[in-house]
Design brief:
4 helices; alpha/beta; 4 strands; globular; homodimer
C-alpha cells in the first residue's frame, strides 16, 4: 500500500499552511487510488512535522511512503533538512520503503504551468 | 510589444538564483514569440530587483509587462511586497500596462504537475 506525503516549509501565516492542507486534499482526489493515503507535513512552524506525517502514513497501513517536497528551489531545505528528517523515519521503520520524489521546481512541466498563468 | 518578467524571492545561494535565471531562459524558449522579451527579477538578495527588471523590459520596447510571481503561497511577498514594487513602476511609467499574473501556487495544474513528480 502506497502513501504520498507532500512536505512544505510551513509558515507563520495559518492561511499558507491551510493552502498546503487543501493541496493535499486535491492530490488525494486527483491521484485516483494510486495512493491509499495522501497527507502533508511541515519542516517548521506548522503541524504535523515531517516525521509525524510519515508516521501517520505508516499507521494508515502504508509499506511505501513517497515524500514530495513542495519547494521551488534546491536549497538547504531540499538538499539537507528534508533528507535528514526522512532518515530518522527510515531508521525507526527499516521495513518501510520511504523515498523522496524530486522537488516541484525540478519538474519539466513547470514552464508550461507558468505560461498557463499568463493566458 | 509584450514582456514577461518572472519574479522570485531571491536567495543567499547563488545556485538558487541561477535556477530562476535558467527558468527565464526556458520560458523565453517556450513562449514561442508570445513575449518579445522574457526576464527575471528578485524581491531581495539577488539582482536585478523587481523595479530594475521591469525597467529592462520597458527599455527593450515593451508596452505591456506581465509580472509573474514564482511563489507557492499567497504570503506577504505575493499579497503586498510585489504589488508595492510594481506600483512604483506604474507611477514612473503611466503609459505602460504593467500587470501581475496569479502566483504559481494558484495554478490549477499544480496538482497534475506534483503527481507527475511521483511517476
Amino acid at each position: 500500500m502506497k502513501a504520498l506525503v507532500i512536505v512544505a516549509h510551513g509558515s507563520r501565516r495559518s492561511q499558507s499552511n491551510d493552502e498546503v492542507r487543501e493541496l493535499a486534499q486535491r492530490l488525494r482526489a486527483s491521484s485516483k487510488g494510486r495512493f491509499a493515503y495522501v497527507g502533508c507535513g511541515f519542516l517548521e512552524l506548522a503541524e504535523p512535522s515531517i516525521p509525524a506525517s510519515i508516521q501517520l502514513a505508516i499507521e494508515s497501513g502504508a509499506d511505501q511512503v513517497v515524500v514530495l517536497p513542495y519547494f521551488l528551489s534546491a536549497g538547504r531545505h531540499v538538499s539537507e533538512d528534508i533528507p535528514a528528517e526522512v532518515r530518522i523515519m527510515r531508521e525507526l521503520h527499516p521495513d518501510i520503503d520511504i523515498r523522496i520524489a524530486p522537488y516541484l521546481g525540478a519538474a519539466a512541466g513547470v514552464v508550461e504551468l507558468l505560461l498557463s498563468q499568463v493566458e
